[in-house]
Amino acid sequence: MNEFGIENLPPFQNPPSPDLGELSIVVNKLTKDQDIEAFAKSLSFELVTIEELSSVDILKTGDKKKKQGIVFLNFKIKSSVKKQLRSDFVSGALVKILSKNYGHFTDHNGNVAIVEHTSANPISPIHVGNLRNSVHGDTFARILERTGYKVFRHFYVNDLGLQVAFTVVGYEILRSKHIRPDIKIDHWVGKIYAIMNNFYYSQTTKVKYNLSANDLYFLSSKDVIIVEKRLSSDIKKLREDQRVAEQDQSVPKSKKKTLRDISIKIQKILDQIDEVSKLNSTGIDLRTRFPQIYSSLIIEVKSFDLTEKTRMYLKNFSQDTDERIVELFYEVVNWVLEGFMTTLRKFNIEFDQFDYESKVTHSGLPDELILKLRQSPNIKKVEGKAIRYSYPPEAMKEFRQNLGFTKNDLPIKGHIPELQLTRTDGTALYAAKDIGYSITKFESRNADVVYNVISVEQTLPQFQLLLPLYELGYKNIAKNMKHYSYENVELRGRIMSGRLALYVTADEYFDETFIRSRMAKRKSEVERNIAPPSDHDGWREDNDILLKVTQATTRFPLIETSPKKRIVLDLDRELDFRRNSGPFVQYAHARACGIIEKILSEKGFIPNVAVNPVDLIDDDSIFILTHLLNLKVRIDKAVNQLDPSIIASWCFELATKFMSYYEKYPVLNAENELQLKARLGLIEAVRIGLANGLSILGINPTNKL
RNA sequence: GAGUGCGUAGUUCAGCUUGGAUAGAACGACAGUUUGCGGAACUGUAGGUCGAGGGUUCAAAUCCCUUCGCACUCGCCA
Fold first, then answer.
1. Which of A25, A51, A55 is nearest to A40 (CA)?
2. How far apart are CA A701 and CA A626, in angstroms?
3. What is the complex's ipTM, to 2 decimals?
4. Is it the case that residue A131 has pLDDT exceeding 90?
5. What nucleotide is nearest A597 when CA is compared to C1'?
6. Nucleotides on strand B with an atom closer than 7 A to protein CB?
7. Which nucleotide is nearest, taking the CA of residue A428 and each C1'?
8. Is CATH 1.10.730.10 the right assignment for the domain spanning A512-538+571-696?
9. How many Å apart are CA A467 and CA A179, to the nearest integer?
10. Domain boundaries, chain A
11. Closest residue (Cα, C1') to B17
12. pLDDT tens digits, one per residue of A192-201
């Protein structure tokens, strides 16, 4: 190589088609000043003398408009050598894949990771939007486990909100009237939440706009009209200001700013009008949809001031000052959480720990941190006891450099807006509690890394936590707390809103899928003239299979696209098994199991690594084995990119390849026994790969369908 | 006004970190395969100015700049 002036050989790559050769190299990279084609020619003359090579071809692109002038050297290896290389590869690959620890890696042995996910508000059932969070969190946790991490799954319980407080007030009313839930608890509480939410905001709106108080918890259409009138006169004034500002040409920059401010104000008022009119329509809607709960609640609520009671309850709960109220909160929240668990268990999702926002607050940690942060040069005092944390560029630079982040590692490159930590009365806001929670989380498990699975809207608040943590001396936490961000879920043709108690719940999604899989299974049994199970055991087995298929069908659509992409779930499409990759992968696995079992019963062979590798040196077998060994690369990529969809595609590709392999290469009817055993070994390798892949995706593989 | 993400076939997406040959799948459309090792299958065909424009390069979907479209975020809700 030296005589050509080449010091480092660029990496070999695989030609796009096998008939071009086994390996190739781009000649353009090797020389700058010489004529590339001449250079390639002399190089090929030299290289073709290598004993193992049968030919070295030169190929130049250039017919198309794009990417022209690339010169490749394509190497073909002598067939005898190739055969030997492939045989060695096959033997080695089979040993690795058929071993017990295939799919389990040790890079992070001894390390601890926490994945915080789902963390849905404990006042309405889990819907498919939350479920995307759960499925991503759970799958990612499983991927981390495969790299050797000890993983703990945490659920952050937001139990300290206003919404929880008025829901608790509503719950207490119904309990005192002995009205018990007649449906799954989280669904039931979801109704209470929607109704109480409407009461609460109807009241505050009435007070704010001085509306007649005779029906304090219901905003009538008359009220809406009054508010509209008042606000539209405000808009008129603003429009006037806008016109004045437009004509003023004195300072162009500040002029722009006031104009912008005015248009923001106008937009805000328009939003207010919209919200008020929605309060009216939602009230009517809830009253008609849930008449019993609605009327029971409204009668009682009229006897007290809801706003005041809600604040009082929240204050007592937050400061841990009234045992009865504290217990009431936990009664509601824990009961709903049980409902969540029942739901998520169907999807194969469980938690190691629930962390309550209230308990973090009761520990006093957030207040301590605020006390310390008050001394920080980055703190700005606002009104009263309110403080804000700011992010000066110098501080950010130091943060970045000391923690070894490059600019591209950070989610936000430019200026970071200030973060308010306390209210005017000095009490901690959510952000301050989150700083406290981050510390508690890390320390409780002595964790090396924490992944917070939170939707993309939270990118800024999540990032804002890091500098205060760093400044407080928690450098490790600031470095190793990662926001696993995901985009939202939309449903084709349906609106989702907790306030309206309108959502496709995770329960419905699962149950509907289960029913459809049962129908599909029956249909296929009829076509194949198989009788449905008649005895108890048969029925149980049938049910078990359907549960596993349903897991695949429900989880796959939520995980198969990158978390950064917004997905639109079309239930008709997801429930059509031919269009959903989940059941397809399950099917491939079941089919592999079926073949292995059949060969055992008919020939008495058990899959084994001791096969004649020459029977597996065809391109298709090599491709499958290479793909199986590639799992490690895919897992690492999924971890680095925070993207489990990489594993979902890996499974799907394996299943597809196996299906076509299976059409092409008969196993039971192989030409001879050696060939049969070799192919059986390959099928076993595929089976192991699919079982591993499914299990990483949180889907229990089924060996029958 | 600032920030972030996304934009690739009729549809849903992969590929972009680290530039390299003919831009890959799936669904849908169309045409085939089956006396079966499980048809929830397989084989094939058609379908693309990679949002637009410019730059860097021997070479750009990929890197840089500009621009358009969509979504989200920007101090007392959690």
1. A25
2. 22
3. 0.95
4. yes
5. B37
6. 1-6, 12-15, 17, 20-28, 36-43, 58-62, 71-78
7. B76
8. yes
9. 49
10. 2-77, 162-343, 512-538+571-696
11. A641
12. 999 999 999 9
